[in-house]
């Protein structure tokens, strides 16, 4: 469903940009782009917890970079750098979407807020999410079962354990992420294996994201959103909460709800397809979204930007 008019900014193939979320981070991400394009280096100069972001992006070990306090602004800096270079070369999307924190980069690509606001907002979001739940937690990707089977199993695990576990991400057919307290998620994994799950893979995240356990962070984010002035979307954004586009007045509430609601990424990809998107550019790091798209909307080609060579290929295309 689209409630804002679509634009075609100068190209014939309707193109969507999609942005990676937490779990795609890797040590050294963006270093080659940083070295090649001096005009974007200031994006990596922002400080998080007293250190400049390039120290986290380029030098920190994986276990440090996986802390959501650092992951979120570092992913934002990577995305903002790629967006700046693409737009400098006349590239524009027709639609955008992102997975979880990638939704903020999508909003930046749609000119809802500038790069500095993007990074500062994700520094704030990372901090409040890290502090929202201090007990052991876990996020697990479940492979090989349909959405309804996973949903029923996590409900059973929640009832048996008396603790919180819910579906957090519907990534693609046959891949659902569950999230919650550690004991409840581990019980759900046992039940899901009994149901025939092919694999259950623990994710490199640092909190029970997209569950009701994030409600304290959502309250703080709502207060923060009240301080911000957002610009109108220049291209439609497909949002995680409902896999639909939205009016400008709905953006803040959708971002708040996203913290404690499932990410409907598979449905968002289908919404892009239904809107007539013919090509997708994944802005990483990594190439994980390309795999999700291939299993969800295989008829649409996806090009991933993970390295400076990838970026140059898209610029030349």
Description:
The chain is an alpha/beta fold. It folds into 2 domains: 15-132 and 212-316, Malonyl-Coenzyme A Acyl Carrier Protein, domain 2 (3-Layer(aba) Sandwich), CATH 3.40.366; 137-202, Alpha-Beta Plaits. Helix content is 44%, strand content 16%. It has helices at residues 31-36, 53-59, 62-65, 68-88, 102-109, 115-132, 147-161, 182-194, 215-227, 251-258, 265-274, 288-296, 308-316, and strands spanning 15-19, 47-48, 51-52, 95-98, 137-143, 165-172, 175-181, 199-202, 237-238, 279-283, 302-305. The strands form 3 sheets. A 5-stranded parallel β-sheet has the order 9-4-1-10-11, sandwiched between helices. Strands 6-7-5-8 form a 4-stranded antiparallel β-sheet. A two-stranded antiparallel ribbon has the order 2-3. Helix 4 (68-88) packs parallel to helix 5 (102-109), helix 6 runs antiparallel to helix 9 and helix 7 (147-161) crosses helix 8 (182-194). The chain is globular and about 55 Å long. The model is unreliable at 1-10 (pLDDT under 50).
Helix residue percentage: 40-55%
What's the number of extended β-strand segments?
11
How much is the radius of gyration in Å?
19 Å
- Written as H for each helix and E for each strand, in order along the chain, the element string is EHEEHHHEHHEHEEHEHEHHEHEH
Helix-strand makeup class: alpha/beta
CATH class of the largest domain: Alpha Beta
Average pLDDT score: 93
CATH fold-level label of the largest domain = Malonyl-Coenzyme A Acyl Carrier Protein, domain 2
Give the end-to-end Cα distance, rounded to a whole number of Å: 30 Å
Tell the overall outline.
globular
């Amino acid at each position: 469903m689209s409630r804002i008019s679509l634009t075609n900014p100068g190209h014939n193939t309707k193109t969507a940009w999609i942005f990676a979320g937490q779990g795609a981070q890797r040590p050294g991400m963006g270093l080659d782009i940083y070295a090649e394009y001096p005009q974007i280096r200031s994006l990596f100069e922002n400080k998080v917890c007293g250190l400049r972001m390039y120290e986290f992006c380029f030098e920190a070990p994986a276990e440090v970079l996986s802390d959501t306090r650092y992951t979120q602004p570092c992913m934002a800096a990577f995305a903002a750098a790629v967006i700046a270079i693409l737009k400098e070369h006349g590239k524009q999307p027709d639609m955008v979407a992102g997975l979880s924190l990638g939704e903020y980069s999508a909003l930046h690509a749609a000119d809802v807020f500038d790069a500095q606001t993007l990074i500062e907002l994700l520094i704030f979001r990372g901090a409040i999410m890290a502090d929202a739940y201090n007990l052991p937690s876990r996020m697990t990707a479940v492979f090989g079962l349909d959405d309804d089977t996973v949903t029923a199993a996590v409900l059973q695990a929640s009832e048996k354990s008396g603790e919180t576990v819910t579906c957090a991400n519907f990534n693609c057919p046959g891949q659902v992420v569950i999230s919650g307290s550690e004991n409840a998620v581990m019980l759900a994994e046992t039940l899901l294996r009994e149901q025939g799950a092919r694999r259950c893979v623990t994710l490199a995240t640092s909190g029970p994201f997209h569950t009701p356990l994030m409600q304290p962070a959502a309250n703080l984010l709502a207060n923060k959103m009240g301080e911000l002035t957002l610009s109108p979307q220049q291209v439609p954004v497909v949002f995680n909460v409902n896999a639909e586009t939205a009016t400008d007045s709905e953006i803040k509430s959708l971002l708040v709800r996203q913290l404690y609601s499932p990410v409907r990424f598979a449905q968002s990809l289908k919404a892009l397809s239904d809107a007539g998107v013919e090509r997708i550019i994944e802005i990483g790091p990594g190439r994980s979204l390309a795999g999700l798209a291939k299993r969800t909307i295989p008829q649409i080609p996806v090009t991933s930007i993970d390295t400076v060579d990838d970026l140059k290929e898209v610029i030349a295309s």
